[in-house]
Amino acid sequence: MNTLTTIITLLIFPGGLCLLLLGLAYEWVDRKLVARLQNRVGPRWFQPLADTIKLLAKEEVVPENVQARLFTVLPVIALAGALTSALYVPLFGLKPAYSFEGDLIVAIYLLSLLTLCTGLAGANTYNRFSLIGATRTLTQLFSYEAPFLLALFGPAIVAGSWKISEIAGYAESHWLVLTQPVGFIVALIGLMGKLELPPFDAPEAETEIVAGALTEYSGRGLALFHLGKGVELVVGLTLVAAFYLGGVANPLAFFVKTLVILLGLAGLQALFTRLRIEQTVGLWWRYGALLVLVQFLALIVWEGWVA
Amino acid sequence: MQNNQGNLWQNVMDQVKTWARVNSPWAIHFNSGSCNGCDIEILATLTPRYDMERFGVKLQGSPRHADILICTGPVTRQARERLIRIYEQMPEPKFVVAVGSCALSGGAFQGCYNVEGGIDQVLPVNAYVPGCPPRPEAIIDGLVKLLQALDNGTMPEPITLKPGVAVPSKSGNPA
Ligand code: SF4
Description:
heterodimer, A: mainly alpha, 12 helices, 71% helix, B: alpha/beta, Rossmann fold, five-stranded parallel sheet, two-stranded antiparallel sheet, binds iron/sulfur cluster
């Protein structure tokens, strides 16, 4: 019985299949919102699903001069990392499937695995566009990762715990977006950087470097990377909503709050043009990291001496 | 019985695959010597006014991600090798749409010393969109007809005027 529940948790609900479908659904919402903001009709509701199935049914070309085994295994690792991180997050407003002391850090680093795999995948091929894309992906990773991490540690400090479920529980009675607005904004924009959404899409800028690190990927590999992105979107939205927008105690709150954040992200995407990679780095290290660091220190002082 | 079930499963899988292919055609655009008139029209097709994302069309930069190669212009001798290379970089199944009179027959450039002819002199073409340049509505119509044919299974054999040309020529042939 116990094994059966574990298997269902891992493969069907809330992990695995449901999560993949939710990722595709959120990708559609994102694309549709951006399309509507640009005064277009936008894709049909099954568009991401059709894209994924089509890619899975396509031929996969393994180019010459690559480490073939690495080439095929990287997308799988990327997707696995994203799926695993979802197990520690309160999806659908349910309790996380697993949790232990310090799972916040583990979950965030599992999420970064996708970006790392993308970078490696680009560096693995001899295609110059892939190489430039890989460099940019990793540069961007180094610029947003620290501020994003600090922004998520803010709620952890006030909750006095490194456990996602406990922080989310604490956040249910405190709307931390009011007390830590800087952290909220940095976390939101960090999420955009993580997902390489415009204006932070320099790593896959199709007008200059074809498709960035994934230029040489076709068929299955591309589909798995896309799925991983979708899962990452859901997990990131859940984390931000649970920490800053008063928790996700029930499914209704989960959907309403994550979709509200997604609306904000779509607006930002439609509003801004692409930043050059050094502008991205400058933005994060000159403003993002500094602001969130100041807030972080203020929080520590407040928690240590005043409260 | 066993065999029947296998066939049923196969049929269902094929239908799902066709459905996905029809609903998610990703395109790549290559100009092999056009005067740019057709390219402007293709860009106009992709703007919010006509919004090709309704049909799931997405312009891709990489041939590895694309399903449909939209070609404009006559094939010049310089561009021939590149056109073939891009076509061969695309994973199966792939389709070619020739857009504009020049892509159909060489059009205004027919008989030029540097021009090989229409796209079908070099690649197997699945759909032709005539016009100089064709309006965005015509391009969308051509694409939708291609997708319908794919859906009904009535896709005609692609047309190649010189069969077997879509192989990069070895050195010694100054094509
Ligand atoms: S068909 Fe007309 S617009 Fe198109 S490339 Fe030829 S001359 Fe230019």
